[in-house]
Design brief:
The protein has 482 residues and is mainly α. Helix content is 43%, strand content 8%. It folds into 2 domains: 37-286, no CATH class; 298-480, no CATH class.
């Protein structure tokens, strides 16, 4: 985010983490019929399922894997990946004809490799040394995964279900081509969005308790999977070519949510027209093809920046009694004293812990630092969310429950959706800023938290509420979250 408007608009460079660009593909999916759209914003439901925490990963009573990957080593990493392939194939065997033309045909080959070993198998004519990846190769009709780095790193940071989601996505690429949904001329963006969507449908089936091999909680478990979608996303640009754009974190999560809360028929209908229509109500700079001219420029997190931000928010929300900002410790007994920012309704004051906020706003290298995308808007979106609580206080809304938390995310999105050159705002939102906010919604949830800094329980719904706000007016947030 920049406070200097168009003159300092930033180039959103490819910021992929591990090199997962080889071939991410959609995943299998079961569709629970009749998931009502009205349930999307219920803080107690996710895609029609109750929000709950609990175990996520391989079931204790899971059967032994049937898939035996070529070049496997019998490790737990290979067992996890092989069980994922079994599960995905079982789903599609049973459900393929409901959603896609023809009949289900499994991939011909499944290969495991270790990217740390110089002399390993060659796939699609390529040497896999140092390729920490999972991919589908159309030429050989093969799915492969790196058991040396990719799988263990994904398990460490995103759990076993993060790996399952990646492989579901890769298997979806195979299904795309086999069903004729795409061909080599289809834009990468379409293929990737379809793949994310199919992965969401499949994982809903797992979360609903239908898998014999895996469980997935709709709370922390799904949050970690969504974190993997962001962290393991492909770059916005590959080789500098816009035609290879894969989509931002907001794009990828949006497509995943379509599948998880909708169905495989919606995934099959994704094309450029659908993508452009879906993004048509977003600010222009959040579109998949938004590319700017200058290096990334993060605003410093200091009193000057926050003062300018407060002025902008006064202009956007136009409250009768704007809240004040304090960088000294507050006396809010109800709020989390260790939070980087809290809102005190009794004094209508936002108290900021500058050191904590600066730490959250420090740009991070995802690959080097092993974090989700982070930058100035990770911090600034939190301050905006505390201002959103002041807006709710003025409207007489309840401030201390999960509905208030989602309303806060929505109102934060409203403000950020207005931060455009077209609106003459000094703070201009860029695609990277939206990704920072989305990542923060998963990692700390403060942008979707109530006056006590208690987040809404499901990251999935937090992101939906924020996304709604980006293309909405203030009144719509109050109407939706009552």
């Amino acid at each position: 985010m920049t406070r200097w408007g168009a003159a300092a608009r930033s180039l959103i460079a490819a910021a992929s983490t591990i090199a997962l660009v080889g071939g991410c593909g959609p995943a299998s999916s079961t569709v629970v019929e009749g998931r009502a759209a009205s349930m999307l914003f219920n803080p107690e439901r996710v895609g029609g399922l109750p929000v709950s925490d609990g175990p996520s990963g391989i079931r204790p009573d899971a059967p032994a894997p049937v898939t035996q990957p070529e070049n496997g080593d019998g490790s737990e990493m290979d067992r996890l990946a092989a069980l994922a392939v079994d599960d995905i194939e079982e789903f599609w065997e049973e459900n393929y004809s409901r959603y896609l033309p023809g009949r289900f045909e499994p991939v011909k080959r499944v290969v495991s490799y270790d990217s740390t070993v110089r002399r390993g198998p060659r796939i699609c004519g390529s040497d896999l040394y140092e390729l920490a990846n999972a991919f589908y190769c159309l030429l050989d009709d093969v799915i492969a995964w790196d058991r040396g780095l990719l799988v263990p790193v994904a398990v460490e940071h995103f759990g076993e279900m993060g790996v399952v989601g990646v492989l579901a996505h890769e298997y979806g690429h195979a299904l795309q081509f086999k069903s004729g949904l795409v061909d080599k001329s289809t834009k990468v963006l379409v293929r990737e969005q379809q793949a994310d969507c199919f992965a969401g449908v499949y994982l809903h089936w797992v979360a609903a308790g239908n898998s014999k091999r895996f469980t997935l909680s709709t709370g922390d478990g799904l949050n970690r999977v969504l974190g993997g979608v962001i962290y393991l996303r492909d770059p916005l640009m590959v080789g500098g070519a816009l035609a290879d754009a894969h989509g931002s974190a907001l794009d990828r999560i949006s497509a995943f949510q379509m599948g998880f809360a909708g169905g495989a028929d919606q995934c099959a209908a994704i094309d450029m027209e659908e993508i452009e229509k879906r993004q048509g109500d977003l600010p222009q700079q959040l579109g998949w093809d938004a590319i700017f001219d200058e290096p990334v420029l993060d605003s410093p997190i200091d009193e000057s920046t926050l003062s300018q931000l407060m002025d902008v928010l006064d202009d956007i929300y136009r409250p009768q009694e704007p809240p004040t900002l304090s960088t000294s410790p507050g006396s809010c007994t109800r709020a989390d004293p260790d939070a980087p920012a809290v809102y005190c309704p009794d004094t209508n004051t936002i108290h900021v812990d500058m050191a904590s906020l600066q730490m959250l706003g420090e740009p991070k290298n995802e690959d080097k630092d092993r974090v989700l995308v982070q930058g100035d808007n990770t911090a600034l979106s939190i301050v905006i969310s505390r201002y959103a609580l002041a807006v709710q206080r003025e409207h007489g809304a309840k401030l201390d429950d999960a509905v208030a938390a989602l309303r806060t995310a929505c109102l934060t999105g409203v403000a950020q959706g207005r931060m455009t050159d077209e609106n003459g705002i000094d703070f201009v939102l860029s695609p990277g800023d939206a990704d920072e906010a989305v990542a923060g919604l998963l990692t700390n949830g403060l942008v979707a938290s109530d006056v006590n800094n208690v987040p809404a329980p499901a990251g999935f719904t937090r992101i939906l509420a924020y996304r709604l706000g980006l293309s909405s007016e203030v009144d719509e947030c109050f109407q939706r979250f009552t």
